[in-house]
Amino acid sequence: MSFFNKMLASIGVGGAKVDTKLEKSEYIAGETIRGQVEVKGGNVQQRIDSIYLTLYTTYTREMDDTKYTDRAALYTHKLNEPFTIRAKEEKVIPFALTVPMETPLTYGHTRVWIATSLDIKSAPDPTDKDYIEIRPARIPAAVLKEMQGMGFRLREAECEQAPKRFRGRYPFVQEFEFVPVGGPFAGKLDEVEIIFLSQAAESANLLIQVDRKARGFGGFLEEMLEMDETYVKITIYSSDLSRLNEKLKSLIDKHS
How many CB atoms lie within 10 A of CB 118? Predict the structure, then answer.
């Protein structure tokens, strides 16, 4: 019977199982995720070589004019040294890991999750998947709020494959597309796109694209040739937050 159970476990039947439980399901970029991994032994004793926790996100990449949804690993954490779990035994292993500052916000179709996998030799690796919501840290939250305060509406937020010149630690960037529905830029701009190129606790590097509204025949030609778009790089520091409205408004106005 024991040999039969071992044979079944080697193909994933009656083997160990894993379940990750988190303290909560919503986090701010830079915050610590705390939880525990519960490992339950199956019908036979098995050696667990390692447990890995990986934070993943989705992003869109384009190939041959076709868009695909891909995934990127943001952070991988090895939780333990090898151990043996007996049949029907239960082990609980606590953990803590920090959400990287550049983790995309879960707006639109973007998803973020923690994947847990047990590395078991000569057997399928049991896995678990826990989706979480990511909310903006202090600086991105202030930028998004000020854009809305200037009369812009967030039309779309999407994680896309990054062009090589803008690629940092990860193969994607998250783009926030705003359209003016009121305020000083209504009628002057088609849209403003903001990309957070990199982030830290006290600063964020932004790429802002200002798309001017076509005016007359010259403006129409500019739009046709995509000359109506201006790209500007800017760094926002925590010390800028008290005058962030003025800083963003001045920059956008200059390139309107």
Answer: 25
| Contact by Cβ (8 Å): 79, 93 | yes
Q: DSSP string spanning 64-82?
A: TTEEEEEEEEEEEEE----
Question: Which residues touch 52 (CB under 8 Å, ≥6 apart)?
Answer: 76, 77, 78, 79, 116, 117, 119
Q: Any residues with CB less than 8 A from the CB of 10 and at least 6 apart, and which?
A: 122, 123
Of 81, 88, 80, 100, the residue nearest 37 (C-alpha): 80
Q: What's the pLDDT tens digit per position in 189-213?
A: 999 999 999 999 999 999 999 987 6
Q: Which amino acid is at 193?
A: E
Question: Whose structure tokens read 């690796």?
Answer: 125
Go through the domains of the chain in sequence order and give each one's CATH number: 2-135 (2.60.40.640), 138-254 (no CATH)
Per residue in 212-256, pLDDT (tens digit) is 764 443 343 344 445 457 889 999 999 999 999 999 999 999 887
Q: What pTM, to 2 d.p., does this model score?
A: 0.84
Which residue do the tokens 């160990």 mark?
Answer: 16
Q: CA 107 from chain center: how many Å?
A: 9
